[in-house]
Description:
Layout: H1 14-20, H2 23-26, H3 30-46, H4 52-71, H5 83-95, H6 97-101, H7 108-144, E1 149-154, E2 157-163, H8 164-189, E3 191-192, H9 208-215, E4 219-220, H10 224-229, H11 232-258, E5 266-267, H12 286-309, H13 323-347, E6 349-350, H14 352-360, H15 366-375, H16 380-397, H17 406-412, H18 420-423, H19 426-431, H20 441-457
Parallel strand pairs: 3-4
Antiparallel strand pairs: 1-2, 5-6
Helix pairs in contact: 3-4, 3-7, 3-9, 4-5, 7-8, 7-13, 7-20, 8-11, 8-20, 11-12, 11-13, 12-13, 15-16
Bound molecules: arginine.
Amino acid sequence: xxxxxxxxxxxxxxxxxxxxxxxxxxxxxxxEDIDGSIAHATMLSECGIISAQDRKQIVAGLTTIxxxxxxxxxxxxxxxxxxxxxxxxxxxxRIGDAGKRLHTARSRNxxxxxxxxxxxxxxxxEITAQLRELIGVIANKAEMYKSVTMCGxxxxxxxxxxxxxxxxxxxxxxxMRDLGRIEDAKKRMDVLPLGSCALAGTTYPLNRERxxxxxxxxxxxxxxxxxxxxxxxCLELASALSIIMVHLSRFSEEIILWxxxxxxxxxxxxxxxxxxxxxxxxxxxxxxxLVRGKxxxxxxxxxxxxxxxxxxxxxxxxxxxxxxxxxxxxVDTVKMCLYAFTPMxxxxxxxxxxxxxxxxxxxxxxxxxxxxxxxKGLPFRDAYKATGELVAKCIEKNETLETLPIEEYKAxxxxxxxxxxxxISLEKCVGDRKVRGGPAPESxxxxxxxxxxxxxxx
Length: 458
Ligand code: ARG
């Protein structure tokens, strides 16, 4: 069925319909479309625009259609132009004139804007729940390994001692910001466009606030042109999702490194790894690699959305139909990634001895060695130089700062004494970094407690 018969004297060409149709990807919004229509019909009858009898038939008809689609009894006709057309057509087929009154004071332009907002609001809640779960897993692991000494890197070169808990909590901080961004995007999504109609509102005395109340929207849009042509909420959500993917991708990259034989800081659970069809020894971090790879799709979705929107004159244009595949793909991809990533992280085995070993071999206590001399009164630049000489000496003699004899220390600077070995012990170096935001076990615990508390209060 076509909604716009009357003006046209010919049937639509199949190729036009195939090209124009959005039902293959907008049918997933059938619940929102039906709930939106029920609220619209309820409001229309309350305002005396349609009769109570029509409203009753519409609500009953739509409720049954929804149940039948869910149970599979009513297959969605893929020849329809879109989900709105299909549902209105099916309703009218069942209840006649009352069905034809549903679209009073409405256009598919405000209808589709409503459906996407409703659909994405729910998706935001699901993603929020998934993010919270992941942050919870990270916080538990960080608490468990808050005292495990690990090497911190810059330029992927061994830099200074940290704890594994601290390293993990850096990701929790990123994901907390992601939670905030999703929450924020949802706020601006939570505005009812229905009542904007095609572009210019309507002469019918609608009660838009009532529709908003029925559908649980916090506000009503104040400009009909903006109401039908705004897709900022898709752009914002896609941006927030892209940033989530940046974080998951960076985390994945580290996991891939950490489970390589070169690092061996962790081992992934067998159930969350994959093998090779030819190399019997292989155990691959496919989940992490795929998450890293899928970040590109989500960024692509964001680019597609931005580009589709940038040149559109007000108000609705068909270009905007392109919004759905992009934003749905971004949402689906992020959800899928979190679905696999969280249990992979939760089940991974940590190998603290290997982390400790890597931390001991890289002169990562050199800054602390210099600070020791500063404590004895030497200016930092001189202390830095003396320690540099010591490192060079160690490399030459195949020693570490821990194993280099005290005579060698004294030969470089006579301020050195045997207490230097305590000063440069990794556990002390990391344990003394208690400054707020530092890697000491207490500081990690503070972060864990704070993140848990914020999530509890949310
Ligand atoms: N399928 C359309 C979309 O997704 C629905 C709105 C159609 N409006 C119109 N004026 N053709 O954008």
